[in-house]
Amino acid sequence: MSRWTVVVLAALLGTTLALPASAQWKWRGKNGVQYSDLPPPPGVAEADILQRPSSASRKGITPVAAASAASAASGAQGLAPKTVDSELEAKRKKTEEEANARKKADEKAEETRVAAAKADNCTRAQAQLRTLDSGVRLAQMNEKGERIVMDDTARASESKRARDMIAQNCGK
Predict the structure, then answer these.
(1) Which residues of 64-87 are buried (b: 16+ CB within 10 A; e: fewer)?
(2) Whole domain around residue 113: which residue ranges?
(3) H or E stretch including 85?
(4) Same domain, 48 and 69
(5) Are residues 107 and 162 in the same domain?
(6) Which of 50, 79, 125, 140 is 20–30 Å from 40 (CA)?
(7) Cβ distance 42 to 52 under 8 Å?
(8) Are 41 and 90 part of one and the same domain?
(9) Do 111 and 164 sit in the same domain of this protein?
């Protein structure tokens, strides 16, 4: 092969490979210069569009029209995207329902745990109040670890604290 034949074939191959690149949109957006095979979003000003495909005008091709043209070119039916959307919507709803059911189950378990803790606190506070009201001599430990017998003031203070716990946890 002659040198000119190789050069011509290389140029022809390069031109053929570069054709899809000429069908690109280029515009200046919030995140700098952006490239796409679809037109820019409607909010982009006409002055910010840096490059458009030679056969396209901004008014003639919109993202919706481009998507429908692409699906028509691939031989897909016009209803195919709606079927996919309804399937995705059904999956999304199912996922949301499962998440809500899990959340309700967690809330119910938490309510049960709180109710059990309140019942236990109620029982303990009632037992403490009975002990305090019985008149039995009671002792406490101080910070030094020494045993101190409760006087009437300490007994009254503990009795008030036990009554507050009963009012708070027993619901009476």
Answers:
(1) eebeeeeeeeeeeeeeeeeeeeee
(2) 84-169
(3) helix 80-133
(4) yes
(5) yes
(6) 79
(7) no
(8) no
(9) yes
